[in-house]
Structures are given as C-alpha cells and as structure tokens.
Design a protein that fits this description.
3-stranded antiparallel beta sheet; 78 helices; 29 strands; disordered N terminus
C-alpha cells in the first residue's frame, strides 16, 4: 500500500481528490510519511528527497484554492463539491503527517516540546489583554509581564500596575535586556539551556524539508490574493477575504512556534535561508504558475513605488545651498540613487487630496534625502517577503502574532529586526495611505516596541543598518507631504514652510508609531550618543523641527466673529509634544554629566543656525507683526532646554553658547509675544476668535504641556533679560503688552493700541509677567526635589487633591527615564513632607469623598507661593480658590483676620550664570514705571486695581531683596549723551532711587485734560522757579523712543557686517497715527519720592492720617533681626510696612528720610478737581465694580444656601432635619388629623370628596428573602470550588413549605396558613409629605408636558415629591378622621375575654361592603392596583387555581407582613432601642392598613373555615372531618403561621379597630404560638427526655395554675402527640444528632421565649402603628417581658421578683387541655399517613439573621483574576463586561447580547429574578458597582479604594485596590433600607440593555 501510494504520489499531475478514496486516507498519509522518513534517513537520500519534493509540489500547489475563492460556484463544481476550503485542509493534513514522519501529530508535538529551553516567556497578546508593568524591575519603560509571570514573581512593595494593553504586547519575563533578573518568575529564573538534551536529528528532519515548501505556498497565496486597490474603491474587503481563507495555514505556523525552542530554530533556518528562497521563488522554472506568481510579486513591488521607476522625474532645481549636498554625502554613505527624485506614485497621491482649502501644499526639493532609504527594497529570504506582504495587507493580527511568537529565538530576533528596519520607509508609506490607520498604528507599535526596547539590539541595528538615518529621513519625508507656506510675519515673501495642522496626517496622529519608535530608541544611551555626535543627522533633525516652528498661526479677528472655529489646535499641540518635545527630553536625559558638553554644543549650534534661517525665511527685522500669535516655537524651546541643561548639569559657561545681542533681541520677541497674547486672551481681546483660542491658552500652561512650552519660553526670556540692556527689555515688555500710553503721570491719556476696558487687565498682565520672570527659579538654580516640592505645594494650595490627580497635575519630566516618576521615592517623601492625608469620608447626603491630601499648616505659613500658583493655573478661578483657602487658614489659625494679600515668598538663590537678571530691578525705566504707578494709584486715576498695586509693591520688594550688597551712595552719572532718564533718577540702584525726590514732571496730555487749565507753577514764585531750574524738569518719558535708541545702537555696533545696513531704521507701523487729538505739554508739580509715596499710600490704605510710624523708633531690635513673622501675612498695609522696613535696613539715608517724612505732618491729600465728565466715568467704573462685587456676594450666598438645603433635604437618616409628618396622635384635643398639601399649600382634613394622600414610593423587594439562618456571612466565590447555593435563604425555605402544604391540604386553606412576599414583596415608604390627590393629578399632567429629560418616567406614574424632591411613584390616601376614634377606643374595657372573643367573631362575620363611589374609595382602589402592579405576577400568584380570590387575600395581608418585617430589620432585628425610630416616623403603615383592610373586608371568610373558631371553640364532631376522604383536609391549626393569622384577624375587622379587640386577638394567638413552641420543643428532644417530661408534668397537672405551667403543658402535648406517629424515628441514630444538649428548665424557658419573641416584636410594631403608642426601650434579655406587658399579655398584678416565666402570659379562652388535644388530634390524623412530612411542616423557631450582602475579599485582585477570564455559564464565552451579583454571587454578562432573553439583557433579567427589580452588580473590569432599580440604573461608585483612598474606575491606573469596609456598609445599608432611589442622584433609563 505504502509503495503504491508513493508511486502514485510521484506520478502525474492529476488532482489528488480523484485518486485517493476517503476512507483509507489517514492510513495512507501516515504510511507514506513513514516511508519517506525512512528513505530520507538513509545516507544516500537523494531519491527520497526528490520523491518528497514531488509530493509536496502536488499537495502544496497554490494554483487551485484561491481561484476557487474568487468565484465560488464554478470552483465548487470543479473541485468535486469540496468547496474552496477542502483542498487547503487536505494540504494541512498532509503537512502534519509528514512532519510527524508517520507517527501521531500530537505525540510529535509533545516530543518536540520536551526539547524546549524556555528561558524567555515571550507570550504574545493582542489588544485588551490584561498585563502588568513593574517600574521597579523594568530597565526599559515599555517592559510588560503577563499575569501568570507577574504573580509567579515577587513584586511585593514594588511600584507596579495592571493595565489593559492598547496595541498588544509580549511578556518580557526572562529577558535581562529589558528587565532586572530579580523580577523574573519562578519558571524563567533558571537558565535552563545547559540541561536540555540535544535534539535528535531525525525528529525534525522532515520539518526541514516540508516547511520551506509550506511557507512558499503561503507566500504564493498572498501574492495571488493581492490586487492593487483601485483609486476609488477601498479594498479592505478583498484583503480580509484572502486573510480569512489563509487563517488555518497561519494558525498552523503559529502552533509550530508554540512547540518551543527546537521548532523555532528550524523555522528560523527556513525563514532566513537565502538559498532556498532563491531556488523556490526566482520564477525562472518551467512551471507556468510559479512564473505568473513571480510577475505578480514584481507588479506589487512596482506599484508600491519601490523599485526604480524608469522615468526619472526631478522636482525643483538642485541648488547647492549651504551644507545640504555635503550632508547627503556625509550622512548617507552608500547612497546609490540619484538625488532629488521622488517616485511618481507619491506625487499622484499628493494631488489627489488637494482640496484642503485655499492653502496650497508646498513641495520641498528633496535633495537632502537619500533615495535608497525611501525606494529600494530587495528581498533575499522568506522572512523578508513575508514581512513585505504583512505590510501590504496592513498587518493582519494573525501574521503579527506569528512573527512575534518567533522572537524568543535570538537569531531570528536579529534577522527580523534588520528586516523590519529595511522595510521602515515602506511601512510609513502604507500607513499614510491606510484607511484603518489607527488599527495599523497599534499593530506596528506592537512589533516595534518588542524590537527597539532592547538596547543591545537597537545599538546593533543602528550600527549595521543606519537605523537613525532611516528613521529621521522617514519622518522628514512623512511630514513633507503636508507642508504649507507660513503666514507668520511677512505673508507675501515668507519662505518658511510649516505643517498644516488640518491634514489627516496630523489630525489623526498618523505619525505616532514612527515618532514613538524614535523616542524609544533615543532612550538608549548608546543610540542617543550616535545621534548627538552625527552633525548631518542633527541638521536634518533641526530641519524637521522647523516644520513645526510657527504652525497653527492665530490671527486676531477685529471685526466679525470667526464663522467656523477650527479645532486644529489639538493636533498642533499634540504634534509639538510628541514629535518635538519628547525626542528632546529623550536626548536631554543623556546630557547629564560634564563629559557630554560636546553634545550640547552641537545641538545648540545647529539650533541657532536653524533659528537664524527661520528669521531670514520669515523676513524678521525687529517688530513682530501685530495681532497674530503662534504658540509653537519648538526651536526656541530646544535651544532653551539645552542651555538650561548645560548650566545645570554640565557646568558649561553660559556665555560660550549664547549668540550676539542682536540674535538675543530677536530670540526674545516671539516668546514675549506669546506672554502678551496670553494676557490679551484673558482680557477677552480675542473673543471674536471663538472658544478655541482660550483652549490654546489653557493647553499652553496645562500640566502635560507646561514644561515643554511655557517653562522653556519663560526661561529663554530670563536668559535674554539677563544679557540684554535692562531698560531695553523693560520697555519692550510694556510695549508688547500695549500699556505704554497708560504709564503717564497725567490723569488722562490716549491709548492708540488698546481699548480703555482692556487697559487694566493688560497692565495687570504686564506686571504679573515681570513678577513671574523675576521670581521664577525653575531653571535658574532649583534642584529637582525643590522643583517637585514647589509644584506640589502650588497644586495643593489650589485644592485638596487625590493622589492620582496630584500625579496628573504635576508636570512630570516627560522623559520616562528621568527619575522623577510619580510614585517614585522622592514623590512620596515630598508629599508626606508637605501634605496631610484626609481619609475618605461619607457625607449625610450619601456622596462619597475620596482620600485627599491637604497642605500642612506650615506649608501655608512658609511655602505658599502665589507666583507659582498663577503660573500653573489653567483656570483663573483656581488662583482665587488658592487665595480663599489661604485666607481661611489665616483666619483659622488666628494669624490675620482680614482679607490678606498674596504673601511675599523668599526665593532660592540664583545660579551665578543668571545674576544679570536682577539688573531689571535696578534700571531706571522700571523705577520710573513704579513711581508713576504709585503716584497714579495714590491720585486715584482710572483703570488701576488692587492687583496692580500688589504687583508694584512685589517688584519693589524684589528689588530691595536683590540689591547690590554695598550701596555706593551716589554713582557718578554715566558719561555720554544726556539721556532723558537721568532727569528722573540719578543712578540705577533702587535703594538710592527710592529716596530721590522728583519735583516736576513734564507730561503730554490731550488739550481737554484738567492739567492744562492750571497756571504754570513756574510763574508763581521765584524759589520754585529756581528749584525748577536746579532739578531740571523730568522729561516726557517715552519708553518707545528709548527702546528704538537701544536697538539702533546695537545694530550699529554690528554694522560692520555689510548686509545689516539695508535694514530699515524703524518700522513705522507703531508711530502714533496723526489723527489723534492734539497733545500739549504740561508740567505737573509732584514733589514726591518713592518712599514718600509709600508712606502716603499707607495712610490711604489704612484710612487714617499719619498711620505710619517707623517701628524701629520703639524697638531698635527690629533692625537687627528683620524677619519678623508679624509681617509675613497681611494685606497692603503690612506689605508697605515690610517694604519700608527693608528700605530702612538697606541704607541709613533711607531710614533717616523715612523718619523725616513721618515727622512732617502730612497735609491731607487735596481733593482733586475733577471735571464732571471725569466724575461720571469714575462713578460709572465704581458703580460697575461695586455691582460686580455685590453680584459675586449674592451668588456665593445663594450657593451656600442651596448647599445647606440640599444637605438637609437629602439627609436620609438624621431626624432633626425632617419636616415632620403632620399626623399628630399625642394631642387628645385634636378632633381630626390636619394635613398640609405641599402643592397648593392649604391645610385641612382628608375628606371623602377631596382626599389627601401621602407621597409614597412602592417597590418590590426581596431583601427579606435573603435572610439566612447562620451568622457566618456568605463569601463571594473566588475559586471554582466555592459556590453559593440559595437553599438556606428565607425565601427558599418558605417556598418549600408552601408547596409542601399545597401537596397535602386544601388549597384555599393553605393560602391562609402562610405569608408570601419574602421575594418580590411590596415595600411602601414615604417622605412624610402629603398632598391633595387632585393637586397631584394636575402636578403629574404638568410633568408629562414638561419636555425636560427627567431621570424618571412619568408614564409609569413616577414623580419627585414637590417639596423634598424625593423619588415617589404613588399616593396613599389618608383615611378620613384617622385619629378621632383612637381616643375613644383606647380606653381599657372590663369585659371578659369570652365576651370580646364573641364580639370579634361577630364583627368579622359582617360582610364589608365597599363604601359608596366616592373619590376616596376610587383612590383606594387605584392605589391597591398600583401595589399589585409593583411586583411581578409570579410573586403574587401562588394558588393552584389561577385568579382565585384567595390569592388576592394572601397577597394583601402579606403586604402588611412585608412592611412590618422590613421595619423590624431596619431597627436591627429587635425592638430594644424602642421609641419611634426613623423608620417609624416615616412609616405609612397606618394608612396602608386602612387601604388593605378595606379591600380584605370584601372577601369574607366562610365562618366554617375561619381559623378564629378553631382557636377559640371546642368543636364537637371531631371525627366527621375525617369522614370525607376524597376531599383534601384543611391545614391543621398547629401548622399555621401565627403572624399571618394575626394579620388576617386584624384586617378582617372593621376599621378603626378597638384596642381591647386587638389585645384579645393577640392573647388568643399567643396560646396557639406557645403550643407550637411546645410541640417543636418536644420534637427536638430525644425519647428519654420526652418520657421524663411526660412524667414530671403529669404530677403537677392538678395544681391550681396548671394551665400556666410549661411543664404541665409540655407533658400534655407529648402525651397527646404520642398517640400519633409523629415521634416514630426512622432508626435511632437520628435522635443523637438532633439534641446533644440536656434540657434544663432554664434552657427550655429560653427556647420558648426565643420561639415566641419574633411574633411579639411584629405585634408590638403593629400596635405602635395602629394606636400610636411608643415602644418602650429595654435590655436584650428583658425584651420578652417588656413586650409582653406592653401588649397586655402579662397580668397587671404579676410580681417581677422571681424569674420571669413565659407561660405566665398565657390566657386560655377555653380549657387548655381540651383545646390542645383538639389541635394535636389534627396533626395525629395527618401523621398517620405522612409521618415524614408531618415533622417537616412543624413550625420551627424563627432563626433568621439580618440580611447581608456577600462578604468581599480584602484585595480586589483576587476577584479580578478569577472573574475577568471566567466564562459565562449561558453562552460559554468570556464576557466583554463581566459582572457579579453582590446579593447572590451569580456571574452575569453586562450588556451581553449573547445572553439576551426576550429583549432583556442578563443583568436586568437577573435583577428581576434575584431582587424583584433591584440588582447590585460589581462590574469586574471597572471595579465599580452599578445599581439597577426597575427600569432605571445608576453607577453607585466603588467599594474598593487604593492605598491613597481613591477609586480607580475602569482600572485605568491599575494600582492594587483594597476593600473599604465603611463604603460597603453604606451600600448594604442602602440596600436594606431601600433608599437607593433617594440617595443616589444620577439615574438613567437602561432600556433593558444591561
């Protein structure tokens, strides 16, 4: 057979199906395989090899199947009905057989696995897999572990988290390049290669022959299936079809990789062997199919633009511009292509999407690129072509997994990485064209992260394959496709190009995978060093960065509001952060030590060159174009950050890397423009540009961006300021902020560039900016820990924060390796130093707080830094919030009562390189500005605010703190031309300038100004004239002129360079337009110095004359130790005092002058002459300001009121806040209850015509059914073994009992013997408010018409109480006059019990007629309908005959039972606390009883069957009942549930009930209950006990109170029941198990009391509600006696001395022994036939414990690991959103369509079955709890918190979570008290979809 098959195999080309009949197939294959293997094992195996080749040729031919796939029908016909898949399956079968060499395939797999040297885990996973990352063990930031390896390793105390994989990944366990060995798991710790035996040669011999053919076949399929997508039709469908067909083949390969190392190395050999690839794929053979396949491959290559196109298109002329041509030669040695040529397909692609608005795309000449990188691909092995097709098919998941599964093989890893790099450019091109770029990006990164995270590998590829060149070139090439002309500065002539942020490439972040790879490889030191050393690369990279310089330009709209708000700014910020900033941080992390100075010099050099090119390209001279701003200056930021690093870490001399002054002037312009624009945006000057401009301003300072954006900008400005002329810098600032014109002494001025309404906020902006510039030390000398601390303090001062939000808000160094990783040691230690932890708390409204950190007191005292807060706030309100908190702290600690000013904080010392920055504080320009502003504030000029004054004082104080050490008392005036400054101040030191008096100032004012009218002071008297000449009138001070002059000087200094001459002297855009009103010059008399102005200001602020008194005159000490805490907090007055003290300290002259000024009694400030017009504007301003303040105050007050109302209204448990229910019972004089209607506000009684009702919420509840009988709470199952069975729940036990009764007894009688409602019982609760029922109807109408989306459904009758907004769904009518009778009926009567019993019977016998059709009765009916409809039918119908009236009867009294039982549970299961508890106060049981009684009276129980008779009368004919055998008997009275009987009896009475009737009923029922207790007890004990009791009791039978002695009664019961078969045991062993305890009299008494106690509790509650009597409170042990006396069971003359005996409560209506024997007879006659069931049905003692939710494990991970992979029992799949019910532990699919039944999803269905509409589910993947209530649901929150007391919704952070017991208790409490609807506010409909 084998020989024949082999011969056939070699023979001919006929199709295989025809020749091999199916049955013998498996045998055939195995035999053939064995034969071939034997042939190949011979030394001369040529014949065997040929034979095998021929067989493979035939089996693995790719000719048939795909043609079949393309058009199915013909193929099916041709292929003999096998369908397209048959042949492939056949081929796979052959392969498996051949590989196994004739043995079984499974045995073969096992054999190969035995040789697996598993040193690496390498498990590959796809998106959404749950993996772990441990930062403590990781070397690479991308390290990840599968759950198994993580849990097997030891990571206790490490910084790890769990995460859901976004793109997929692979486990790094065992790879010491990526993680530290200490973190390896147990399996991968052993280096196992040594002890693995060598692989026997013949095991894998066949694989080496078969696999090359198999892989070639796969490649042929791929070639065959690929068709170039037509331009208009996206071809994903076709590709996916091909991939689906190839699924089995690729899966087969994947399975091979999982066989372990031995098989992987064979595969590696096959994939990388160049010879076999050449032999098989050259396409030169005579086989036509192979030739065709090869042609298809060439076409695919060509269409991808990868081989050289014949026609050589050249774009742009190649001009040898500086450096580029040489670069190409340097950078890319080995370039083969001609330069400057782009492939044609790319060009067409460009034109295809030209329709992007009017901006024309710009195409650069591509002479810097090396074509070989972009265009050449030559495949030499299977691996290379496989990767090529993987890319072509856009990275199918299966292929990616196969390629990654091979990675543990080291040889393969290197080969694959090189192949990947070789295809890098092609990947980029495919990605750009892809429609599914997101998915594709994820798959690319899935691969690349495995390759590039490994430093050794990355280094190797960088050296051998020019990885860096390829990456940079590819990125540059990618961005070039979307360039446009920059419109910054000079629109017409600009040569600069920027990326267009509106393009898909940027909008969709398509560049992300490439940039992420680049950042990844730059994190390796060896690679980054190569990059920083390679000048060519740096030039190219700066070229790339400059594409982003100035992108997304904003132009201020001056007239119209912009029509369409573009959202491109997201793309712009993301691009700068990811493509520019992150690589920058990556590079910076390697420039930490002195040895790396060279790198910094390189970067700085090329950066400056690029900047210079940029300034030239945009034609920048000296003025920025007005009204435009770009937030993107990456080149500036690169330059700044490298400078900062150079000074901080590398000890470089700053000046050696700084350019000349002119370049510095240019450098500062654009960052300064951004700062000014921020102020403009916040002043609403850009309001016509829409919201997006605000968005940009916020993003610029937001925590993820700030240290790559605003921080470098400010630092660069600080550097420029420290090196430029200070006067020039200061004047530039005020000019940029457009407030120059405001800085005049005159009371009026004209501002040509700014509207008056913006002046104030712009001035505040300018001064605030100067304060930040001068006080920020982030890059000027603070250490990393100090920075972290300052950032943390700023965030905590704004608001208390959770740990995660702190981590989120503190700008971490974006480079992952920088060491300040949140959660690292320094973060935690700084946090504990500055903040206190506030544990999570609960508020009465039920809102749950997270654990918060709040600043320590000493932080507020010494470290609160308003400057840092202003810098870091995204919203202006946060600054206010910080100040409010600061104020509160000062008030609380008693440091300062008023409204404090921001405190002045001491700064870290400046690094010596930046000392020049402080010259800003000592330049005349600034002093003139400060002087002018102080003067203007003092004179109350317009547009100045407290904030301005605050900043002015801050600057003065900074100047005093940072003055030169020794004051040279008068510096000689600088030689040279007379500057107008000199006429103001003599020197430049603030300390001396402070005391300089300025007498007269010449100002330019409009002719209308008041100053013009005055007489010239010169003409008044001679001496003043003299002084005028002496001091010289201060000139008109023009900032602008000064700045021009400075700039000119600098330019002239450099003018030796010829090309500088052509620059225009000034740009005339800013000269004041001629149309302005005439300005004339006036001279003002000032006669003030800064010091005198400060002292006057002190008077002005304090509102008292001469309020300032120099403190050192009293206490000379103050000058010696000046840091006095009294000055550190306070308002403006304190600030002025602090400054004067510092000024006095700095110089004796100042001290003297201050004293002098204070001696002169200052005349009051003269009231200014104010013109009417001016007064008007001033008043207007003032009024506006006041109105604003008033409004703020009102709003604040309103908010606080609202809050307090909400707190009281939502307060579920605190009694005092409640509006009491207006049902008064205590005052006897009230004739009728009076109700207030909360809608119409009228009060009055409820009447038949206009009834009043209580607002109630009806809900079905199964809480009672969840009571269990053991104290040990059930645990949530977390292993397969643990299961929860509901057999022992209260609901289950009652169900069993009812069905048992129904088996043996008459149905109607059964339905009276028990209660239902343990599951699905209706619970009624009220908020206590009442309304007229007609008012309610109109209220519902208005709700129905109200279109607002409510959280409830009005159609279902739902509404919220109009007063307290509590959720409700019905109205319970109040019975008219419900208190009248109470008083009459409550008097005790002296009738005997026998009379009362008769009365009760008569009253019950009267049929109740429904009252006449009144409104009240209608409402009673409708509310009864509501009650019925609240629960499902299955919870109402228990009768065997559907719709029987007995059913309704049972249901109604069970509603009463449910409500009583639940109230008992709310009171904690007993009544020891007594009193009207909260549940009592809100209870509506009284009204509910009326409604139920009214309906139950409609059903009269036939007096024959009324259990009342059985209880109170002896029946004569006992035997007659037994006669009629065919009928089922009634339920014996001892099997009746006594509480049910009680409710039946009471509800059958006409209402209102009399108290003595009530007591009578209770007494009668107690006798039955007691007897039941005795029976139960007798069954519990064993035979010996019984006979002993029988004997002792019989002796006492004739004593006087025998009927009240339990011994006598017990012995009688035993005697009676012994007549039947109740005590017959089935064998003797059982008696031992039942009663191991000996029954002493005490234990018997205790048993009987416990047996009766539950009934007493329920009855007392009922009495409390019906008659309004308070419940007494008591100890637990005396509960029985207290309740029984409260119920009137105890005779009043009862003495309490001797121990209490329960039997003394008995009051037998008929002789005890007779009635007991009657009752026992019924049981005996039943047990005759059914002894077993007779025992089971006996009423047992109430053993139910309070209901609880399942107990949850301490650590969330135990739940997560078990459930998130658990399969659903219904659909056997792993659910996408698994959830578990916390009531019963059932595992369900949330939203799973798989488990949907009749349009209900599983959670909703379960909530109905388990909780009658209430479900509590824990969502496994989110750690949150979801509540389903009826048709609504809400997210409740989480009961698992992390170590910092906060939730982790959706497990985003993945930190370990621990149970918060308090929260879980709150959840359980809300479940038991049915208050979910009231406490949780955010409800929405679930439409049955959960």
């Amino acid at each position: 057979m084998a020989a024949a098959a082999a011969a056939a195999a070699v023979g001919g080309p006929q199709p295989p199906q025809a020749e091999m009949p199916a049955p013998g197939l498996a045998l055939d294959k195995a035999a053939t395989a064995a034969h071939l293997k034997a042939a190949l094992s011979r030394p001369d195996n040529r014949a065997g090899a040929e034979e095998l080749q021929a067989l493979l040729e035939r089996v693995l031919s790719a000719e048939r199947p795909l043609a079949a796939a393309a058009d199915g029908e013909e193929a099916a016909a041709a292929g003999g009905g096998g369908g397209p898949g048959a042949a492939e399956e056949e081929a796979l079968e052959w392969c498996k057989c051949l590989l196994a060499g004739g043995g079984g395939y499974d045995e073969f797999c096992a054999a190969v696995r035995a040789y697996d040297p598993a040193a690496l885990c390498g498990l590959v996973w796809t998106a959404n897999f749950v993996a772990y990352r441990c930062r403590t063990c990781g070397i690479s930031p991308c390290m990840s572990l599968c759950a198994e390896c993580f849990h097997q390793g030891d990571h206790t105390g490490h910084d790890f988290n769990m995460f859901r994989s976004q793109a997929g990944g692979a486990c790094d366990c065992g790879d010491s390049n990526v993680m530290r060995e200490s973190g390896f798991c147990k399996r991968h710790q052993i280096k196992s290669s040594s002890n693995i035996p060598c692989v026997p040669k013949d095991l894998l011999m066949m694989s080496e022959f078969v696999l090359p053919r198999f892989i070639f076949c796969l490649i042929q399929y791929l070639r065959e299936g690929y068709n170039e997508p037509a331009a208009d039709v996206p071809s994903e469908k076709d590709l996916n079809k091909v991939l689906q067909l190839l699924e089995p083949q690729i899966s087969f390969l994947e399975d091979l990789t999982k066989m372990g190392g031995a098989m992987r190395s064979v595969l590696t050999q096959v994939l990388t062997n160049q010879q076999s690839y050449k032999d098989l794929t050259s396409g030169l053979g005579e086989n036509a199919y192979a030739r065709k396949s090869h042609e298809k491959y060439l076409i695919a290559l060509k269409s991808s633009g990868l081989t050289y196109p014949e026609d050589k298109l050249v774009y742009g002329i190649q001009e040898p511009s500086a450096g580029t041509s040489t670069l190409a030669v340097q950078g890319f040695a080995g370039a083969t292509g001609t330069l400057g040529q782009l492939d044609s397909s790319d060009e067409e692609d460009q034109d295809g999407s030209q329709g992007l608005g009017k901006r024309k795309r710009v195409k650069l000449s591509s002479n810097t690129k090396d074509q070989s990188i972009m265009d050449v691909l030559k495949h030499k092995s299977f691996l290379e072509e496989l990767l090529f097709w993987t890319i072509k098919y856009e990275f199918p998941q299966k292929m990616v997994t196969f390629l990654l599964n091979m990675l543990p093989d080291q040889e393969y890893k290197v080969a694959f990485t090189k192949t990947f790099v070789q295809h890098y450019a092609f990947i980029m091109k495919t990605l750009k064209k892809s429609h599914e770029s997101d998915t594709m990006s994820n798959r690319i990164v899935h691969i690349s992260v495995q390759l590039f995270s490994n430093e050794e590998l990355a280094r190797q590829v960088t050296e051998e394959c020019q990885l860096l060149d390829i990456m940079v070139t590819v990125l540059l090439y990618m961005m070039e496709s979307c360039l446009i002309k920059s419109e910054l500065q000079d629109e017409e002539n600009s040569l600069h190009v920027v990326v267009n942020c509106g393009e898909a490439l940027l909008k969709n972040n398509t560049y992300w995978p490439l940039v992420s790879d680049f950042i990844n490889i730059l994190s390796h030191q060896s690679v980054a060093k190569r990059f920083l050393e390679d000048h060519g690369l740096l030039v190219t990279w700066m070229n790339f960065v400059s594409f982003f310089q100035g992108m997304n330009l904003n132009k201020r709209e001056l007239n119209e509001h912009v029509e369409f708000e573009s959202q491109t700014y997201y793309a712009a910020f993301a691009a700068e952060l990811e493509a520019c900033a992150q690589p920058m941080w990556g590079l910076l992390s390697h420039c930490k030590v002195r040895e790396t100075q060279e790198y910094t010099r390189n970067v700085v050099r090329y950066c400056l060159e690029a900047l210079q090119d940029w300034f030239d390209a945009i034609n920048f001279v000296d003025e920025p174009a007005p009204n435009q701003v770009t937030f993107h200056l990456p080149l500036h930021r690169y330059y700044a950050m490298f400078l900062s690093k150079a000074v901080k870490c590398q000890e470089l001399d700053l000046d050696s890397v700084l350019p000349d002054q002119e370049m510095l002037m240019k450098l500062m312009i654009h960052p300064l423009q951004i700062q000014a624009s921020l102020a403009e945006i916040h002043s609403n000057m850009w309001v016509r540009n829409g919201l997006q401009i605000k968005g940009q301003a916020m993003t610029y300072v937001q925590s993820h961006f700030c240290n790559s954006m605003i921080d470098p900008d400010i630092y660069l400005l600080q550097v420029c300021a420290s090196r430029l002329d200070p006067d020039y810098f200061i004047s530039s600032v005020f000019e940029r902020f457009k407030v120059v014109d405001l800085l005049t002494m005159a009371s009026q001025h004209q501002n040509t560039v700014l509207d008056a309404e913006h002046e104030r906020s712009m001035l505040e902006g300018a001064l605030t900016f100067l304060v930040i510039l001068l006080s920020l030390r982030l890059h000027l000398g603070m250490s990393d820990d100090e920075i972290l601390r300052a950032e943390m303090v700023a965030q905590l001062c704004m608001n208390d924060r959770t740990h995660s939000s702190l981590i989120h808000h503190i700008p971490e160094n974006p480079n992952p390796k920088s060491g300040i990783i949140p959660g690292s040691y320094s973060f935690e230690s700084v946090l504990s130093a500055v903040a206190d932890f506030k544990a999570p708390v609960f508020e009465p409204g039920g809102s749950m707080q997270q654990g918060m950190y709040t600043p320590k007191a000493e932080v507020w005292d010494h470290e609160f830094d308003p400057v840092m807060v202003i810098l870091r706030t995204v919203y202006r309100r946060d600054v206010q919030s910080a100040m409010d908190r600061y104020t509160a702290f000062l008030k609380q600690s008693g440091k300062f009562p008023g409204n404090p000013w921001p405190p002045y904080k001491k700064r870290t010392p400046l690094h010596p390189s930046y000392k020049g920055l402080m010259r800003l504080l000592h330049c005349k320009t600034l002093h003139i500005v400060l002087f002018t502003l102080l003067y203007k504030i003092l004179m109350d000029h317009q547009n100045l605010s407290e904030h301005v004054l605050c900043m002015v004082l801050y600057l003065i104080e900074l100047g005093l703190e940072n003055s030169a050490e020794e004051e040279s008392d008068e510096e000689a005036s600088v030689g040279g031309p007379e500057r107008c400054h000199d006429s103001w101040f003599p020197g430049s030191n603030l300390v001396s300038n402070m005391r300089h008096f300025i007498n007269y100032v010449r100002v330019r004012v409009p002719e209308t100004a008041p100053e013009v009218k005055r007489d010239s002071p010169a003409s008044t008297s001679s001496d003043s004239l003299g002084s005028l000449q002496n001091s010289g009138t201060a000139q008109v001070f023009s900032l602008v002129a000064e700045r021009r002059k400075k700039f000119q000087e600098i330019i002239n200094r450099n003018s030796s360079e010829a090309n500088q001459v052509v620059r225009p002297k000034t740009s005339n855009k800013w000269s004041a337009p001629g149309s302005a009103p005439q300005l004339t010059t006036a001279i003002l008399e000032i006669k003030e110095s800064i010091l005198s102005l400060l002292i006057k200001l002190h008077h002005k602020l304090s509102g008292k004359q001469n309020s300032y008194y120099p403190p050192w005159l009293d206490d000379i000490e103050i000058l010696i130790q000046p840091d006095i805490p009294k000055y550190s907090h306070g308002d403006g007055i304190t600030a002025v005092e602090r400054i004067l003290l510092k000024a006095a300290l700095q110089s004796r002259m100042n001290k003297r002058i201050i004293e002098e000024i204070c001696r002169k009694v200052t005349p009051p400030v003269p009231p200014k002459k104010i013109t009417a017009a001016e007064k008007k504007t001033l008043d207007k301003e003032e009024r506006r300001q006041k109105a604003r303040e008033r409004q703020q105050k009102l709003l604040a007050e309103f908010a606080s009121r609202q809050k307090s109302f909400m707190e009281t209204a939502m307060d579920v448990d605190s009694p005092e806040s409640d509006i009491p229910m207006e049902i008064t019972t205590a005052e006897p004089q009230v004739s009728e209850a009076v109700y207030d209607c909360v809608i119409c506000g009228q009060s009055g009684p409820s009447s038949e015509d206009r009834p009043t009702g209580l607002v109630v919420l009806l809900q079905a509840s199964s809480v009672l059914g969840q009571c269990r009988d053991n104290i040990e709470p059930k645990k949530l199952p977390i292993t397969e073994e643990e299961q929860i069975y509901p057999w022992d729940t209260c609901a289950a036990v009652h169900d069993v009992r009812l069905s048992l009764l129904q088996r043996y007894f008459k149905d109607s009688s059964c339905l009276l013997a028990v209660s239902i409602g343990w599951e699905g019982g209706v619970y009624v609760q009220t908020c206590g408010h009442t309304l007229h029922i007609d008012c309610h109807k109109s209220y519902m109408e208005s709700l129905r018409n109200d279109q607002v989306l409510q959280g409830f459904s009005v159609d279902k009758g739902e509404f919220t109480c109009p007063l307290c907004r509590q959720f409700a769904n019905s109205v319970l009518p109040c019975y008219p006059g419900s208190n009248v009778e109470n008083n009459l009926w409550q008097r005790p009567s002296n009738k005997s019990i026998q009379d009362l019993i008769k009365e009760v019977e008569e009253l019950q016998g009267r049929p109740g007629a429904f009252p006449s059709e009144t409104n009240l009765s209608k409402e009673m009916e409708s509310v009864m309908k509501d009650i019925k409809n609240t629960t499902q039918k299955k919870y109402r119908d228990y009768s065997k005959t559907p719709g029987s009236p007995d059913n309704d009867f049972l249901f109604m009294y069970s509603v009463a039972r449910t409500n009583l039982e639940l109230e008992l549970i709310h009171r904690g299961g007993n009544l020891c606390s007594g009193g009207a508890s909260t549940a009592g106060k809100r209870s509506c049981l009284n009204q509910l009883f009326h409604v139920l009684a009214l309906h139950m009276r409609l059903y009269s129980i036939d007096s024959e069957y009324n259990p009342w008779r059985k209880l109170t009368q002896l029946l004569e004919e006992m035997n007659s009942q037994l006669g009629n055998e065919e009928q089922q008997p009634e339920v014996p009275i001892l099997y009746h549930d006594v509480t049910s009987l009680l409710l039946i009896q009471i509800l059958m009475m006409p209402q209102p009930l009399r108290k003595d009737h009530f007591t009578c009923i209770v007494k009668v029922l107690f006798t039955l209950l007691y007897t039941q207790g005795l029976v139960a007890l007798s069954v519990k004990c064993n035979e010996d006990d019984r006979s002993a009791w029988k004997h002792t009791g019989a002796l006492k039978k004739n004593t006087c109170d025998a009927e009240k002695s339990y011994e006598v009664l017990l012995s009688f019961v035993i005697r009676e029941l012994s007549k039947g078969k109740l005590y017959h045991e089935e064998g003797t062993q059982e008696c031992a198990t039942i009663s191991p305890i000996a029954w002493s009299p005490e234990s018997t008494e205790k048993y009987l009391q416990d047996f009766c106690l539950h009934f007493l509790r329920i009855t007392s509650l009922l009495q409390h509600h019906l008659f309004g009597e308070d419940l007494p409170s008591c100890q637990e042990e005396e509960e029985f006696s207290v309740l029984s006396s409260c119920l009137g069971l105890l005779p009043t003359f009862y003495q309490t001395e001797h121990p209490f005996i329960s039997a003394s409560c008995l009051d037998w209506p008929v002789p005890a022994f007779d009635i007991i024997s009657q009752w026992c007879f019924e049981i005996n006659s039943f047990t005759e036939r059914h002894a077993e069931q007779g025992k089971a049905l006996l009423i047992q003692e109430s053993r139910w414990k309070l209901p609880h939710l399942l107990q949850l494990p301490e650590n969330y991970n135990t739940i997560f690991q078990y459930y998130h992979r658990k399969t659903c029992s219904v659909c056997t799949k792993v659910p996408k959103d698994p959830a578990v019910c916390l009531v019963c532990g059932t595992f369900v699919c949330l939203k799973g369509l798989c488990c949907k039944q009749q349009s209900y999803c599983e959670c909703v269905l379960h909530s109905q079955n388990c909780g009658a509409g209430t479900g509590i589910f824990l969502l496994i993947n989110a750690s949150v709890i979801i509540i389903i209530r009826g048709h609504r649901f809400c997210l409740w929150g989480s009961v698992y918190l992390d170590a910092h007391g906060e939730e982790d919704r959706d497990l985003r952070r993945g930190k370990p979570l621990y149970i918060c017991k308090e929260r879980y208790k709150v959840l359980e409490q809300q479940w038991i008290s049915h208050t979910f609807d009231h406490i949780n506010k955010r409800w929405g409909p679930h439409y049955n979809g959960l």
